[in-house]
Amino acid sequence: MRLRQVMSDVFLVEGIASNWTLLREGRDLTLVDAGYPKDVDGVVASVEQLGHRIEDIRGVLITHGHIDHVDAIPALQRLHPLPTYAGERELPMLRGERHEQATTWDVVSRCWRPRVAKWAVTIARAGAPAEVRLPDAQPTLTDGALDLPGSPVAVPCAGHTSGHTAYALPAAGIVVTGDALITGHPIVARSGPQLLPAFFSHDQDEANASLDALAAVDADTVLPGHGPVWHGSLLDAVDAARASGQR
Ligand SMILES: [Zn+2]
After folding, report:
1. How many Å lie between the centroid of ligand 1 and the Cα of residue 26?
2. In this structure, are residues 168 and 217 in contact, taking their beta carbons and an 8 Å threshold?
3. What is the 3 state secondary structure string of the chain?
4. CATH code at 2-245
5. 247 pLDDT above the threshold of 60
6. Alpha carbon of 7 to ligand 1 centroid (Å)
7. Using N-to-C axis directions, what is the helix angle for 204-215 and 234-245, rounded to 10°?
């Protein structure tokens, strides 16, 4: 776990193979995503590094229901009950009624590529593949700021999954993009704003179209689901991601 303070009350944490974000407001926290099953100790450690406890988390926002972003949540909920929220169209996946995740075969069939093989070993150790089950997740409201620390605003951006949601922090000029726009991944050589390779996404055309929603966010800092913090114009980030999607 590596925690980076992006602003006074915004922290990006790099887990085993994905990121989560912590928003602080006084004694209260919002957690955005939570990593793989074996990231649970890392999530607890990141909260404690800020001088907080899991009990301080007022809610967990989910960008999307892929295991590398949500599978530590059930273990966290065993420590302390935590309300969870996700885009309305993501809820069937969190209930286990729909699957939109790259299969083991999608990964194995690409393991002739050294980067994919190395990453596959990392995620196998992280606890993948596993079933996502968060039946109690509630839909995020999309009209205005959510009543959670940091006052995040949900930005629906489907494509990577049907209910994928980014979270904007207007006062901080930050957007937490999940996997709708990333800035690096172990299986790709290039760094900077980009889409994930298409085999990870439910609908790459829709993911491309949803970049418009991110371009409309007034922010100059991107906290992605994979890769480092990125500073710059959102329009430039989206242009770069769009170009990556055409490769
Ligand atoms: Zn994903």
Report:
1. 31
2. yes
3. CEEEEEECCEEEEECCCCEEEEEEECCEEEEECCCCHHHHHHHHHHHHHCCCCHHHEEEEECCCCCHHHHCCHHHHHHHCCCCEEECHHHHHHHCCCCCCCCCHHHHHCCCCCHHHHHHHHHHHHHCCCCCCCCCCCEECCCCCECCCCCCCEEEECCCCCCCCEEEEECCCCEEEEECCCECCCCCCCCCCCECCCHHHCCCHHHHHHHHHHHHCCCCCEEEECCCCCEECCHHHHHHHHHHHHCC
4. 3.60.15.10
5. no
6. 25
7. 170
Domains in the chain: boundaries: 2-245
Give pLDDT tens digits for 198-212.
878 889 899 999 999
Q: What is the pLDDT of residues 31-56, one digit of tens each?
A: 999 999 899 999 999 999 999 999 99
Distance 27 CA to ligand 1 centre (A): 30
- Report percent pLDDT > 70 for the chain: 91
Ligand 1: distance of its center to the CA of 181 in Å? 10
Ligand 1 centroid – CA 226 distance (Å): 9
**pLDDT score recorded for residue 106:** 67
**Could you give the CA distance from residue 149 to residue 30 in angstroms, rounded to a whole number?**
6
The residue-averaged pLDDT of 137-163 equals 95
In angstroms, what is the span from residue 126 Cα to ligand 1's centroid? 15
Mean pLDDT (the chain, rounded):
91
